[in-house]
Design a protein that fits this description.
About 30% of the residues lie in helices and about 30% in strands. The chain is an alpha+beta fold. It holds the Pfam family PX.
Amino acid sequence: MALLDLDNIAPRLEGNSMISIPHYKIKDGKYAVYVIKVAIDSTIWTIERRYSDFVAFDLQRFEDRKKSFLPPKKLIRNLDLEFLDERRIELEKYIRTVVELDLWLQRRRKQYALPSLVAHFLDFHEYDSFFRTSDERNVRIMICVHEPAEGFEGGYRWRNEVL
């Protein structure tokens, strides 16, 4: 889990620019990657994810749901610029909604961590400071163990323990 100061994040992500997908790149003329920008306080990073990475993430995050909320896959002319821009907008709405939902659930549970699957998809594990926090009551340190994950390119599933 990635620890966050949830009280300082706007309840609805439209109120901040924590996550956005400002553009996409076409790689080798064969496929597109979507550039996800994450901004937490003064730390900003970008991640590149293919549509198939979003599909694998969606299957893991919502494994009991029959219908996905991802934009549909297109088999023919899937590198059409208009199509890619529309998909970029829909993927941004999707990932912001998922994060917004998880932040809301964590607030209700009075927990201050982003679920590990979401945190990993957004590469929080690359930024050690988000895995440690202290509050007035205690200090929580996350031990994150890499486990190869099935499903998305270069992915890991995180097993977490709180000390």
